[in-house]
Each structure stands twice: as C-alpha cells, then as structure tokens.
Amino acid sequence: MSVSTAMSLFRGATFHITAHLLTDLPPPLGPEIAFAGRSNAGKSSAINALADHHRLAFVSKTPGRTQQINFFSLPGGAFLVDLPGYGYAKVQRELRAHWEDLLSTYLQTRGSLFGMVLIMDARHPLTALDRQMLDWFSSTGKPVHVLLTKADKLTRHHAQQTLRQVRAELKKNYADNYTAQLFSSPDKQGVDEAEEIIGGWFGIVSNDAQKKPPAKGD
C-alpha cells in the first residue's frame, strides 16, 4: 500500500463509511490512521483542524456522541478512522462493553492500520483509560502519536512541563515510536507538526514542510 506525497495528508478528507459492528468494517482499501481519545478530549475538533474542515467530524458538547467507527477517505489514498470516544460514565454498561470490544479488536487486529493518533486533554493527560489504549496497541509494534489538545488553556510553562512529562512516560513505558506534541484546535497550533510526524509513517513530506526554508547548517 502506498500514499501519494502530492498534497497535505488530511486536507480534502471526505466521509467514506460508518461501522457499528466489526462485521461492518470495510475491506482494507488503503493504509488507515486511527484517531482515538477520551470523551470530551477534543478529538473531533482536532480532526477538523487537521482536515481544515469545520464539520468533517461532528463536534458535540455532549460527551460520548461518537458511537461508531467512522471512516474518512484522504486524497492520497489513506483513510482517517475516527473511533468512538471512551470513558463517558453515563453510557449504559452494555454499550460501553460494546465500544471496548470494538476498539480493542480493531486496534489489535486490523492489518491495514498503520498507526494511532491518541487525543488527550493537556490538562488531564495519561488517564487510566488512556494508558489502557496504549497497552492495547503496544503489542502491534505500530506507532502512536499523542496530541495534547486544549494546550491554549494552559500557560506556556505549564504546557511545556506537561509535554516533557508525557514524553518521558511514553519513552519509559513504551517504544521509541510513541511520540507526543502540544495541540490547540482553535488556533491550529501544532497542525504542521502533526502532519510532519504522522506523514512520516508513510514517508510523506507535506507541501507546507517542503515550502519551509532549510535550517542554517543543513
């Protein structure tokens, strides 16, 4: 499987299909990038910021709104896969168990899945459920990139301190291909960095990165 390098990885994404059950999953048509995150961590807003689209992923003030796996096709041939938000306490036990089975099975067994983008609220990172997601995925050996969203709600010092702590824990407990960055959807802080890191999973250099002048000494 290959992905075109001619354009930005996420811009131009379009809805492809929704899957409520594992049997509803589409056949693998290209490499997939899973987006996961705790309910109300800002996952939909992050997807919209990366795709430069106001309503590609539905943003709701009600946590737990995303209840299925939503596939979005990307211009280069890959797929963005929006997974159900986890950790919302008011969800019925049966539905929560269904989500957990759907998430864990998809993450651990989907051959076309190239990596996971894990959304964490920068004010409350690495919750027990976040760690559960990392543990589920660690057996695959595939990369994880953490977006510490809502970074604009922290002071610069606090945000940098949080980033250092998260990176240190990822390095200590997981693999070198588990990375993290600060992200803010309203002002699109971190969009270019995310494009560069996630695109690196496919050997992609985005147009924005190509336009940047080389650093002194390169």
Describe what you observe in this structure:
- By secondary structure, this protein is of the alpha/beta class.
- It has one domain (14-211): 3-Layer(aba) Sandwich (Rossmann fold), CATH 3.40.50.300.
- The chain is 32% helix and 19% strand.
- It is built from six helices and seven strands.
- It has a seven-stranded mixed beta sheet, with helices on both faces.
- Mean pLDDT is 85; it is low at 59-65 and 205-218.
Labels describing this entry:
218 residues, Rossmann fold, 6 helices, disordered C terminus
Strand order of the largest sheet: 1-3-4-2-5-6-7
CATH architecture verdict: 3-Layer(aba) Sandwich
**SSE run:** EEHEEHEHEHEHH
Main sheet specs: 7 strands, mixed
Tell me the total number of β-strands: 7
Uncertain stretches: 59-65, 205-218
Highest-level CATH class: Alpha Beta
CATH superfamily annotation: P-loop containing nucleotide triphosphate hydrolases
**Could you state the oligomeric state of the chains shown?**
single chain
Structural class: alpha/beta
CATH-derived topology = Rossmann fold
The residue-averaged pLDDT reads: 85
Residue share in helix: 25-40%
